[in-house]
Amino acid sequence: MRFISAVVVALSFGLSLASPSLETRRVVHEKRNFDPPGWSRARKLADDVVLPMRFGLKQSNVDRLEELLMDVSHPESPNYGNHWDPNQIADMFAPSQESIEAVRAWLHSAGFAPERIKLSNGRGWLDVKATTAEVEKLLDAEYHVYAHKDGGEHIACNSYSVPSHLREHIDIILPTVNFDTRITPRPSSNKKRSTERKASINKHIVTTGQKAKSPPVPSSLANCDENITPDCLRALYNFNYKPIATKKNSYGIVEYTPQAFLQGDLDLFFGNFSPSLVGKSPTFISIDGGVAQTEDQSFDFNGESDLDLEYGMTLVAPQQVTLYQAGDLVMGASFNNLLDALDASYCTFEGGDDPNFDGIYPDNQPGGFNQPESCGIVKPANVISTSYGSQEPEMTAAYQIRQCNEYGKLGLLGVTILFSSGDNGVAGFNGLCIDPATGQEVANGTRFNPDFPGNCPFVTAVGATQINPGSTVNDPEGACEQVIFSGGGFSDIFAMPSYQKDDVLSFFKNHPPPFSAAQFNNSQKARGYPDLAANGANYVIGREKQIDGEFELVFGTSCSSPVVGSLITGINDARLAIGKKPVGFINPAIYSPAFRIAFNDITTGGNQGCGTPGFTAVSGWDPVTGVGTPNFERLLALWLLLP
Ligand SMILES: *[C@@H]1O[C@H](CO)[C@@H](O)[C@H](O)[C@H]1NC(C)=O
Ligand SMILES: *[C@@H]1O[C@H](CO)[C@@H](O)[C@H](O)[C@H]1NC(C)=O
Question: How far apart are CA 3 and CA 147, in angstroms?
C-alpha cells in the first residue's frame, strides 16, 4: 500500500459546481486487453483514495518532428548541426491554447473547480488531484489495485473514455491503463526492500559466471574471440583516438538504482586496462535520490553499472564520463524519470508525482527521496547511452509514442540517444513472445516481441556482434550467437522513418524473411531495428570481490551500446575541437549512402527466438546488426567533412 499512502493527500475539496450535462458521447481512449505478466487484480481501489491525475495534452507539431529532426541531422541538409535550444523546442511543441482550454472546460464542467486544475510549466499537462470515485465517473473507468507475484502493488484501470470531441486534444491520461513499472531488479534474498517489483524494464546483460583467462593481457589481441578487452575493441573498430576537447564535451551513462557501480570493481579493471583511471569515478548526477548503493553487492546489482563504466570510461579517457543515477532505493525510477531530469518541460508542475509509476517523488516512504522530483536539473550530455529496455506489449502505444517524441526533441537539441536493442533476438526479455490472439507476452507465444525504446525511430538502437570462435579482430564479425542474440525486428507501433526506407525496403526485396504477417509486422511500413551494432560477447569485466579479484565474462547488447557511445564521443570531441557542433541524432547520417563505407557490413549469424531462427544478418541493413559495426577512422573523416 505504499503507493497509495504516497499519493493520498489530505485535502478537502469544496463542493463541486453543478455539472452541466455532458452532451457529447464518450469513447474509449485507451484500453488494455490483459494484465502484464506476473500481475493480478487484488481488489477494488477505495473510493476516497486521492489520485494525482495528469491529463497529457496533444502537443503541437509533433507530426513535424521527424521532418524537423531530419533538417538538423541529415548529412545533406543545409541546416545540418543547427541544433535547437530548449526554448525553441518548448515553443514548437507546446499544446495549443485550444487544447488546453478544451480539456480544462471539460474538467470544469465535470465539477472540478478551476483552482483544482493546474497547468504544468511546459504546458503539456493539466494536473488534478481527484478521488477514485471522481475519476471513475469522469473517465467511465473502474480502478483496481493489482498485486505482483513477487510483491509490490500498482493501481490501474482496464480502459477509460473521454468525450469524443476531446480525443484530438488528449494524448494520454495517467494513471490509467499502463504498467510501466519502475526499474527495480530482484533484491538479494536476504534483504527486504519495501519495493519488490518485477523489473519490467530490464538490463541487457548476461553472465555465465565464467572467468576470463586470467589475468587478461591488456594489449594482447590473441584471444579476442574468447576475452574482449578495450584493446580488442580499439582494433576491431579502428578506434585509437585521444580526446583533446574534453572541457567542451560530455558523455552520459544511465543507471537505475539499485544498480550501482563498485569503485573496487572499476579500479581492478582500470589497474589492468587503463592505469591512469585508477581511483577515478564518473561525475555523479543523482536523479530523484539516485545513489550508488554498496549495501547489496552481486552480479545482479553491479554487473551492468560496472560494465558500462569500465568500458565507457576507459574508451574515452581522459574525457570525464557523467553517470546519471536515477531513482532512490525504495521507489526506483524509469526512463521518464531520466527524461524529466533532462528536460523541465517534460515534468509535471509542482515537481509532482507521475502516477504512471515512473517513480513518484517526493517519496515519503522510509528511506525514500523525500524531495521534489528532479526536474530539468541537468543539461543533457552530448551522448547518452542506456543499456536497459522493455518490450512493446508492456505499455500502451500512446505512452511509448509520447516518450519517443521526447527522444526526438533531445535529438533536436543535438543529443545522441543510444539504447541497447535487447538480448533475446526476435523474442523479448526471458524469451517471451507474443500470443497473436491476445497480444500478450507468453512463454509459448509465436509473434516476435519488439523492444522498447529501440522501436522508437528517434533513438539509435545498438545490436550485438561477436568475433566468431577461432577468428581474430581482423576477420569479419558475425551477429552475436553466444549466450545472447541481438535484439532486432520491426515495430507494431512505430512507422518506418524516412531515413531507413531505402535500406529496409531493399532488405525485404533482396532477402525476404521467411515469416508470416502473423509472426511480425511485415507491412514494410514499420520501423526496423537495430540501427547499428558492436561487439557484445565475452567482455572481461573487473569484479573485485565476487569473483575473487578476477575478471568475469559478460554478454549482451549492454556491452555494445556504451562502446558505440564512446566512438561517437570521440567524434564529437574532434568536431568540438574545431568549433563544430556534436553530431546529435546520428541515424540519418549512418543510413546515408555516403556513410556506408564507414561500416563493416555483418553478413553471418541470426537472432533466433520465438521458436524460429530469427532474422539473418545479410549484406546491407538487416534487423539483426543494422548497418553493421563502425569504423571509427572512416566515420571521423566523414563527420569532419560535415558542417
Ligand atoms: C500457450 O499455452 C496455453 C496454455 O497451455 C494455451 O492455452 C495457448 O493456446 C498456447 N498459445 C499458443 C500461441 O500456442
Ligand atoms: C505495422 O506497422 C504499420 C506502420 O507503423 C502499422 O500501421 C500497422 O498497424 C502495423 N501492423 C501491425 C500488425 O501491428
Answer: 12
- What CATH number corresponds to the domain at position 358? 3.40.50.200
Start-to-end CA span in the chain (Å): 55
Nearest CA to ligand 2 atom 8: 492
DSSP letter for each residue of 201-267 = SEE--EEEEEEPSSSPPTT--TTTTT-B-HHHHHHHTT-----S-TTT--EEEEEETT----HHHHH
Q: What is the pTM of this model?
A: 0.87
516 Cβ closer than 6 Å to some ligand 2 atom: no
What whole-number distance in Å separates Cα of residue 520 and Cα of residue 489? 8
The structural domain count of the chain equals 1
Which of 282, 356, 377 has the alpha carbon at shortest distance from 320? 282
Distance, in Å, from the CA atom of 524 to the CA atom of 521, rounded to the nearest integer, reads 8
CA distance 187 to 257: 11
Which grid cell sits at 476? 569479419
The answer as to whether 524 is a domain residue is: yes
Count Cα neighbours of 157 within 13 Å in the Cβ-side half-sphere. Answer: 25
CA 559 to chain centre: 15
Instruction: Measure the CA–CA gap between 377 and 413, rounded to whole angstroms.
Output: 16
492 domain-assigned? yes
pLDDT tens for each residue of 309-345:
999 999 999 999 999 999 999 888 889 899 999 987 7
40 alpha carbon – ligand 2 mean position (Å) = 29
The rounded radius of gyration (Å) of the Cα atoms in the chain is 24
Calpha distance 484→605 (Å, rounded): 12
The closest residue, in CA terms, to atom 12 on ligand 2 is 492
Distance CA 518, CA 516 (A): 5
Nearest residue by C-alpha to atom 14 in ligand 1:
444
Per residue, the 3-state secondary structure of 446-494, as one string, reads CECCCEECCCCCCCEEEEEEECCCCCCCCCCCEECCCCCECCCEEEEEE
Active site residues: 304, 308, 558
The answer, yes or no, to whether residue 3 has pLDDT greater than 90, is no
- Asked whether the bond before 530 is cis by omega within 30 degrees of 0, the reply is yes
Nearest to 135 by CA among 19, 48, 6, 260: 48
Indicate the residue type of 594.
A
- The domain of 553 spans 202-641
pLDDT, one tens digit per residue, over 603-638 is 999 999 999 999 999 999 999 999 999 999 999 999
Residue from 392, 494, 504, 523 whose mutation best tests the ligand 2 pocket (most atoms within 8 A of CB): 523
Which residue out of 435, 516, 525 has the highest number of ligand 2 atoms within 8 Å of its CB and is therefore the one to mutate? Answer: 525
Is residue 497 one of the residues assigned to a domain? yes
